[in-house]
Amino acid sequence: MARVPSRRVLVIMTGLSSYQIPLLEGIRTVLLERGYSVVVHLHDLSSAELPWQLRCLLTHGRPAGVIASGCVTAAQDEQVRRLVTEHGIPTVHLGKDLPGETCVRGDNVQGMAALMAHLLDEHGARRPAFIRGTAHQPDHRDRERVFREELARRGLPVDEELVIEGGLHQTPRVRALRALLSARPDLDALVASDDIAAIFAVDILAELGWQVPRDIAVTGFDNHPSATLTWPAITSVDQNLVLQGTTAATALLYLMTGAAPGEHHYVPCRVVVRGSTRRQDTLTTDDGLGVESVARLAQQHLSEQNNLMRLSRSLIDCRTPEDIRATLADELGPLGIRRCFLALRQDALHGDPAAVGGVEEGHSPTALVMDYRDQGSHPVPGAPFTSCLLPEALQGELDTGFLVVQALHAGEEELGHQLLEVPLGTSAITETLRLDVGKALRAALDTRELRDTVHELRREMEERRRAEAQLQLSSTVIDQTADGIAIVDSRARILSLNPAFAAMTGYPVAELTGRSITLLRLRQEGDTFRTVREALLGQGHWEGEMWSRRRDGEQSLARVSVSGVGTPGQEPDQYVVVCNDVTELRRKDEFIQHLALHDELTGLPNRALLTDRLTQRIALARRHGEPLGVIFVDLDRFKMINGSYGHEVGNELLTTMAVRLRDVLRDSDAIARVGGDEFVVVLTRAGGPEDYAAVAQRIIAQLSRPVTVDGHQLRVGASVGIACFPDDGGEAVALTRNAEAARHSAKSAGGGTYCFFRPEMTTQAQLQLQLEMDLREAVESGGLELFYQPKVLLPGGDLCGAEALVRWRHPVRGMVGPLEFIPLAEERGIICDLGSWVLDEACRQSRAWRDAHGRTVKIGVNVSAVQVQQSDLVKQVVASCYRHEVESADIEVELTESSIMDNLDEVSETFSDLRGIGVTVAVDDFGTGHSSFAYLRDLPVDVLKIDRAFIMNVENKVKDREILKTIVTLAQALSLDVVAEGVETRNQADLLASFGCRTAQGYLFARPLPAAEFADTYLARAA
């Protein structure tokens, strides 16, 4: 719906000074003649925000147009422009130059130029100072700009030291002007941006002994009436303010017909030359007003002041808003006031902050307390209103004649507002009324609030007495209760507690008061305390069990309830903690539960608990795809000992056997007693059947040792049955049953041994254990042998090195391949000893070849990731080279790419140290790891050995050829050597040579050879 404006024009001003009054005369004359009312909003100079009354007039007052002469700050001016634009209100701006807006202002440029011509050309000034005006006012900025331009036009420099800030009513600005005048006696003129500043300056000059205009000329601007009342009178510029007002009103009427905004109107100014710039020989007596005019003005001012003083004295004696209303009704007529409306904010009138909140931000509901019209006071509506400035029934008053709106303040507090219809010839009436009525209303409200406060205090004292009696009763009940109760604040400090709470903690009441309740917290209870805090913040309550520490260090368990106390909807500022000690009840429950699930004699879990734990471990093993073993142990000859020596000896023997079983097992293994002399062990995180067999052997050995009981030396054995998950069963009961069946087989075999549920598993485990023992013997006694495969240069095939490959000649099984015993060595922890032997043997052979054939062969030695992690590989290399007098540069250490990527940081450090002592470092099986080539940038290596998987298909697979080319190119870019492994045909060798690969090894050149055969083939022939 389109906005329907009233026939009301809003004029925005910062006061009713002698500057604004002529503007309003011109505006009112034009608008009232054409049937428009005028509402003038006087902006409060102390307000930083745009007053709500002004926002209300712009937003809800439906003005037909707005004439804005400016607010206190540029930010407020911008808010006014935004509101009039948002609501489509035609607007004329006085004293502004705004692009796209209709503006009216005095031609300050022309006026200032004429003033400077008078001062510089007629008076002859050459060193003028300038006093600035209001920074956000364009006319003041124009005056300073023209001041500078006119000086420059005459070739006179602007001395920036002589340009000072205005506002000479402020003490710091006065000091600045005094300092300037004292420091620069060469000044000959003082140009002020307005007449008020010029008048202040004349007073300061007189104090310092300067004579105007003999010593210095002074000019102002705006032709303020006060400028004619000084001696000498101030030379100024008349902006023709009445004409500006009529021009603005006429331009607004034109805009209200639908014309487009944007036209700027400049009203000519004229220089009024007075005594402050005339030379001594031209001074006359007509510089100011005539004697009759001054007398008339003085008489008018005196009469006005007498009326205002009588009103002020009357308001001092008022004690209620009703007294104020009656006094104003008697005194407003002599002041020439035709209409007066006073409205007070509801929160100020009733002292009730809850009443705040209305249609405008910062505007509470308002009550009209004064309706003065037609020389009399009228009844006011009883209900408060939230409409714009006046109740609905009186809104028509805004559309009649001329009203001034101004906020009422008492200090920084806004009480309400006043609307006045006053004669324009004076400015003191509205300001005096604003101040005096505000003070009187504040005093009246304070008096009434004092009476209300006394009544409220009496009521509160009575309520407090009743509350204290109730609190005393509650305190007695709390002190007598058996539950522990404590009150803590938001920082967990104990404010008060009852004797029961102190008794539960072991601390005296005085020692706990004021301390943090976290003093009682167990370290492991941190998560519980965090849960409590989160529950209190979310629901305001928590209940559960909590462990705490007593003063003597003993732990106790309590059933605790914590509730927040405070204002609803806000975070509690206090908490009530109620607790009941349940430590003994918990211990009894735990003891009963322990008896139900544990063997009373040995303390081991019983069959029920074993079944539960085994079920859980089976679920984990199934989830992670891991093996699991169940060992059933039966003591041999126990029944005979128990029958011969009695149950007491038998019980002590069982207890000893249980302890030995615990000692032989790992913490991750579980053990239970399931019968008289029967035990079950659950093995987790073990390698497989051979590991189970090794554990079974340790159990048999441990339990077969003699034991002395009650002076009797006894010896028992053990029969052990083993079942494997998942092959021998997928459930706890089935695995236990099958392990027990295997135990029967071991018992039938004569005892002192073990059997798997499946016989072939027993044989396999025994073979694997035997192979492990043989391998250990071979490593210790030198039963291993190194073969050497040559590395050759492409394309010629000349020898350039060899790779050492370990072989095992088993005394029974013959030659055992590395694929069979190397994984066993890594699994059984033999790999470090094996690797040390290989390294030492390679160094020994290198020295032997050099002594026999006079030639050094660089030997590549394979190391495992375990060696890098568990041994000091660098020290081993140094020691072996030193022992056999071999250069470290003759040794090449090889580690597979997958092992490197599993331990990249640790491997990088070791490789760096190896290279530091001169050892060549190679990445074996390159291209098989699931990794990015990016790691090669930082990995300290010398050689890439391409895995044979890429070589075997290079002749018939295009992708493999491209991969090989890429690897060789990458190695060359990183300055790395490349060795191709598994070369078996001449065509493969030729292709590799064409790609730039310079080194190869494989069956095309030779299989791995014993040391003697390698020497005969390559070293003796070369020699």
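[next item in queue]
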Amino acid sequence: MVVIAMVILASSLITMYQVALEQSRENLARTALSQARLLESVAIFDQKYSGNFPEGSLSATLSQIDAAYKSLEKIGETGEFLLAKKHDNNIEFLLISPHEDQFVPSAIPFGSKLAEPMRRALKGSGGSMIGLDYSGTPVLAAYQPVTALDIGIVVKIDIAEIRSPFLITGAALVLFSVLLTAIGSALFLRVNNPILRRIKESEQRYQRAIAGTNDGMWDWNVKTGEDYFSARWAEILGYDLSDLEPVVETFTDIVHPDDRKRVWDQVQAHLDHKVPFDIEFRMRRKSGDYIWVGCKGSASWDKHGQPTFMAGAITDITDRKLTRDNLLKSERHLKLYREQTPLAAIEWNTDFQIIGWNAAAEAMFGFSFNEIKGRDYFDIMLPENTKADATRKWENLMAQTGSTKSINENLTKDGRIILCEWHNTPLIDEAGSAIGAASLVLDITSQNKAQKALLAKEREQREILDSVVDAVITIDETGKIISFNKTAEKLFGYSYEEIIGQSVNKLMPDPDSARHDDYIQRYLNTDVSHVIGISREIKGLRKNKQTFPLRVSLSELPTVETGKRRFIGSCQDLTQIKQQEELLRRTQKMEALGKLTGGIAHDFNNILGIILGYSDLLRNKMTGPPKLSAYINHIFSASERGAKLTKKLLSFSREQSPEAAKLNINDLLLEQKDMLQKTLTVRIKLLFDLDDRIWPIWLDTSDLEDAILNMSINAMQAMTDKKSDAQLTIRTCNQSLNNRDALTLGLNEGDYVQLSLADIGSGMDETIKEKIFDPFFSTKGEKGTGLGLSQVFGFVNRAGGTIKVYSEPDHGSKFVLYFPRYHDDNTEKETKARENDRVLRGKENILVVDDEAALRDLTSELLTEQGYHIFCAETGQQALEILDHENIELILSDVIMPEMDGYQLAAIVQEKYPDIKIQLASGFTDDRQMSVADESLHHNLLYKPYNTQTLLKNIRALLDN
């Protein structure tokens, strides 16, 4: 009986163990599933609203679950909830709860025999089993995947804890078989009460989690068709729970008719093939309108693989859906624009690889998108010589510091090089970091070729205009200057940039400018021409306010498309022509006067010869009273004076002196020095500056002596007001004149000897300078005959030379005489010229300072032709401003300038820039030179007029010193 009772009790105990085990398995599985769905819901909520959590939505979800689990009681003595994820082929545990010390197991290999339930969950399966946990302990465990977080959840209890009551009971059977039934019943209650309590706790926890989430929860018993809807589920759709019958038909009826088949096909695929259930569809609210929901769910299957129940959650995604739809619509529009735009559209990642490429880009570069996708731009589309520049531009674009527009050379698939205009935009994320770039590209190869051709044509036309000898200016109908060639720049002193857009009236003084406006306006109104197509002489006005004679020829250009009329004018500087005309006039006057005076003097000489002869006879024969002898002597003296006068008159008519011979001018001057000093008196200091290697000339010695004496006496009289420091400086030097220098002086190209006499007297104005060589013109009144300088002019002219006068009121006068060199060997000249051309060039920076624009421009051009880099200044102040910004090695400055003279400028430069060489130039010798602190500047002074060779020699000597 006892044995039977024990067998019965044992069988009952085994049965109860199996029932308890199966019930525990089912409860654990349900708990695992509910916890998995809970985590899914919380994760979806956190992904939407906890994006700013320091470590992301997973961390936010775990922190909430951990806090919730801490408040729960244990699931028995060994029960645990575990969360884990797969990382680097390991199972990495994230959370274990409830646990007093929050112990988290170490990671274990994914292929290990341990933690089999968690491995299945991480593989995407859900269910229950008996297996080993992370520590190797046999456990009863339920497992589910949490797809939203890509983790697994396991709810487990040790098998030993479940078996323990039954083992104790089995042992008791041996000793207490009699009480087998009672003990079995007690054990049954003892076993099931903890399990039921844990189930109740899990259910309570599940309800709390549902209440805390923003999603609507649902639970569907697949076998019975019963449905559970949470209060939030009903609230999302505007219902009360009492309005909803808990059956699956309620759910089906609320789904939009157009979406029902799609939803149920997805459900069936999940139940049959375990395809993830994650779908968006429309559901009808109680008010009748539809909202978009996102629905996720997961099923549980029994040991035969049949689905038992399915649970999940819905989220209202209406706003997100509308936003996404609008975004998709915008993206479609953008895609259409990108595909249909004629510009090549390209999208890049941060590695400069192409991830977007439209049809226009394919047509432009020849690559299909599949050929170019993911490839490096540097390798296939850039010529080698442009890669460094492209790298720099890309780095600046990614750093958001560079220009978004660039023009680059690019390679096409067939190897052609095309020129492209790129418009680039960095793509910036919410944090302000560049995540890529987008580009629009235009092929400008043809446009660039056309532009280059146009520029070449414009350059050719500009070069033609700049090569024209005359100044060429174009203006519009309002008188504004449109173009201005190089000759015009030199003539008027304005640079192209200064004058373009200015009124042409700036180039003419009144009344010529006013008359010009009247002529143009009358022509525009009546088409009656007064100045168009003809030449006329007017006054020109340079930038430095200097006026000069100008011949202007004006013509009308074809009318432009806008209807505006244009005019072109050529301007010719008449200064040299006028000077040559004046020289010719004076020469012709002298020739006419010479013929007239020659004839008169010849006859008068005959008369004087008779008078002198007879008076001499009378003087020799006279023995009468002394008074008569005195009368005869007076007649004889007057006759001699008349003879001297006729000699001067006859000099006008002589083409060449019969006394001419080879002459060293220095020797003559040294012989005459004492006589000249006595003539000047001790009040005036006579200075000689004679070139030791002076060339020979061919002259009449007496003519030259008369000329020097005549000019010295004039200088003495000009310095009458000088009580002290009066001086006359006589200089000689060799001058080799090139064609340009010779034309300026009205001479032929060649070698000349220069003789200059410079005083520091009262000087002359322009009116007097124009008349000083006219016969019988004198500033001395009755004290002068007016023949002195006219005779000097005639003498120099007969010698084949010329004479130039430089004078300004209160700054003295300088007479410069040029005499042709007398050549014994014609080859000497050519050898010397080649020598000079070889050694006088340079590359240094030189600053030319002169208030006279014409001389400044001429000097600049001469030095530029020799390779020097030239800067120009009109005043001393302008020169100092240039020195502040440029590396100047030598300054060539005029002495006499307004506001600040050359010596004052030199003093400032020597103090501020002691390394700069200084070459001063002057046409006069005045008081200021006597007090120069730096004697070398005075000693090295370059005297105007200087020729090219003299200038180049002085500059080269200074730079090489």
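[queue empty]
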